[in-house]
Every structure is written in structure tokens, then in C-alpha cells.
Amino acid sequence: MLSLGAGASSATINLLDERNAAFVGMAQDGPFDTPITVYSELGYEQYFGGSTVGLANPYLYASVLAYFENGGYSLTIVRVADDSDAAIIGVDGGAPGARTGLQALRDVSASIVAIPGATSQPVQAAAIALCESMGDRIAILDPETPTSIGAVTAQRAALSTADGFAALYFPWLLSIIPGAPSPMPPSGFVAGRIADAAPQETPAGSVSAASGVSTPLTSQQSSDLTALGIDPIREFVSQGVQFFGARTLASNTEYRYVPTRRRAFSLTSSLRAGTAWCLAAPNDAATWAQIASDANDFLHMLWLGGWFAGATPSQSYFVHCDASTMSEDDLAAGRTVLLVGFAPLTASEFILLRIEQTRAPVTGVAPGAARFALETPRPNPVRSGAAIGFTLAQGGLVTLRVHDVSGRAVRALAAGTGFATGRHELAWDGRDDSGAAVAPGVYLVRLESGGRTLTRRIVRL
């Protein structure tokens, strides 16, 4: 089965990179309350130093090392002045540069948030609130104590996030990172493993840079914790230390699992970015049909990659962008609403995502006509190709290509070719650029002109 992660794309919508994590904590050097992104231990040391001497909370540096040891990719750091709740939670000044502590993460892209070793209820509630308000990230929380099951159970009872914007792991880990404290809070290890997993994958398996756990868990204890939404970390004689759970703290069962929550993040952000072109187009049926077509192609690619449950596309996802998804108030406000549903691998019902694009208010200006239109290709059962028609409102250069469902260009029918105003039709003979016949199946026709792109499905018989 394919594993589609960052960089995968359909012909028009890219799967955005969801591997960036963000940590808040204390360091010896570096600017305070300023997000800085690093890609390695050396990058961290360049800005923040490699010493933890005298720090009230010494876990940030070691957690950075654990993050990269467990597959982490990029990491944004916010250094705070002390370990008080006020300094960590910070202040939202309403604009980049005016935010401090945890609130400074409002200015960065991150899909995972952690504050290693900071376990007070106000701090963890603030981390959850940040993730909920941003809508695109999950908080990884540490247990208050390294060993107490009773304490982590009470901690869990005080935390709430209906739609799964946080996950709590237990217990702490015995570190084998040179010079690092031991035991260590698990959030850095967990964040690295999550960042290393594609959004549809369960972040489970072996823990790197750990020799054991601060308190061993029995199977019954592990089951009891899991039932509460606490993710156990266990040690086995033959397998070492293992992440043994991937549940969120959700009360909404739709978002009970970390990969479901991450998949929703990824789909929402990718679809929003990939349909933003509509803000420069009329909010009409033609635009809605193009959005639906683009979203269908994107979700079909992910379905082929194993992102959704269901044996057929109709069992796995749906897309609606039409008069049924927008009210009169939406239209008056210039909103285009795309409604997407997908069947997660861990549940049988569809999870609904609402993607909105809102235009800036315009007074006294009528929307302009579309510069061109791409017709639905007409398959040719005799020649196993298709006729592809398009209309230009104004003559110009046109690129017209056939792509497979993974986004790879198969055949260029026009490459920066000049066409006059009016309707045109080109024929595809079912072959690639080398002249070889392509396999029967679903392909995509992509028309580019004047900085705009339109896509339609095509079936090669």
C-alpha cells in the first residue's frame, strides 16, 4: 500500500507538509519569545546553546535531541525567561512580534506542540486552547510525575478537548542521550515519532534514545489507561520501549485517535490552500464545480494511497460544493464553502470537514467573467483517447497536459502554445509523450493560462 506524506499532490492540490513541531521551554542562550525553526541538534545549539546548567526546567534541550532521534524533521523553538505559568502561557499581543511564550506559536506553522516538563493544569489547558483556536495542531502533554498512575489519572480528569486537540502519554522515559536528565518527560520522544509518521499512520512502535520506562505497566494497567484516553509507553524484554497507544483526549469519538485528528488537519489545510484560487474567481456554479472536481481528484489520489476506509471511492469520501453548502448569508458575505467527508481507517462513519474561502468586501464592482473554461473531456471508445474542448475569453498562451492520478505529467498536448479567442478542441490518443499507450483508468486534464489552472477528469477506456 502507498504511503503518501508531505509533497504528494494531485494535478492541482498539494498535500501540505505536516511534519513541523514546536516546543516552548528554557534555554541558556537565544532571544526570548521569538520563534526560531531548526532542523537538527546543531541548529538548536547554534541559537540556544547546549547547556542546561542552572535552568529551573532543564528538559527542552534533551527533548530536542529526543525529537530528532525519533525521526523529527523541523522544529520551532520559543525560549521563555522562566518556568512560571505566566511566562510559559505568555501574552497574545494581537500581532507577530507582540506575542510571548506559548502565544508566539500563533505566528508559525506547526502540527505538533509540546512544552517538555511543564505539567501544571493552567499550562496544559492553555496549550489545548491554543491548538483548538488555531485548528491545525495537536498538543502532546507530559504526565505530572514520572511514575504515579493515580496522579496521571487525576491529571487526565482535569483536561478537556472535545475534538481531540491533545494527547497525554505516560510514564516518563529513562534516557540514554549523553548528558540528558533521566528520567525524561515523553513529549519530545512522542513528537518526533508523530512527525516521522505520515498523517494516516499510527505513531506507534519502538522508542529511540530510551533504555526503559520510569515505571513498568502491566497489560491491565495499560488497558485501564487507554480506556481513559491516556497513551501508555511500555517496556518489553524482547522489543525494548514501545509507544503502546495513539489516543487523543477527545470526548467526541470521531477524533478519538491521533492519526484521525492529524488526517483532518492535513486535509483541511491542503484543501484550503489548494482552492484559494477561487477568491479571484466569481462565486458561481462554474467555480463551485471546479472546486469540487479538484477536491475529488485530490481525495481520489489519497484513497489510492490508503488514507481512507472503504473499498470504493464512494465508500471512502465525498465532496460537495454547490448551492446546498452555502446559505444566502454565505453568498452575501462572499464565502465559498466546500464540504468534505472522509471515512477514517479506525471508524465506519464519515468525518465532516468544512473549508471556507471568504472574499474581501467589494462595493459597486461586478465580478468579472472567467478568462477560460475547460469542458469535461469526451472519451473516444474507438481510439481509446478523448476529445478535450476549452474556450478562451481572450487569446493567449495555453498549456494543456494529461496527468495520472498521482499528479505525474503523462502527455503534453500544448506547451505555452498561442490560441485565439473562442472555442478550441484537442485530441488525446491515449498515449504518453514517448508514444507508448497508457493503461486504462482515470486521468486528469490540466489547462493552464494566464496564471490560472483548471482540471477535469478523463477516463481512458
Name the descriptors.
single chain; 461 residues; alpha+beta; Rossmann fold; Dihydrodipicolinate Reductase, domain 2; Immunoglobulin-like; 3 domains; 9-stranded mixed beta sheet; 4-stranded antiparallel beta sheet; 22 strands
Outline the structure in words:
- The protein contains eleven helices and 22 strands.
- With about 450 residues, the chain is an alpha+beta fold.
- The chain has three domains: about 20-260, 3-Layer(aba) Sandwich (Rossmann fold), CATH 3.40.50.11780; about 275-360, 2-Layer Sandwich (Dihydrodipicolinate Reductase, domain 2), CATH 3.30.360; about 370-460, Immunoglobulin-like (Sandwich), CATH 2.60.40.
- The protein has a nine-stranded mixed beta sheet, with helices on both faces. Strands 15, 16, 17 and 20 form a four-stranded antiparallel beta sheet that branches. Strands 19-18-21-22 form a four-stranded antiparallel beta sheet.
- β18 (about 395-405) and β19 form a beta hairpin.
- α2 runs parallel beside α6.
- The chain is elongated and about 75 Å long.
- The two termini are about 25 Å apart.
- The model is unreliable at about 365-370 (pLDDT under 50).
**Average of pLDDT:** 89
Q: What is the helix fraction of residues, given as a range?
A: 10-25%
The gross shape turns out to be: elongated
- Count of all domains: 3
Question: Major β-sheet, in short?
Answer: 9 strands, mixed
Number of strands: 22
CATH topology of the largest domain: Rossmann fold
CATH architecture classification of the largest domain: 3-Layer(aba) Sandwich
Quickly give the structural class: alpha+beta
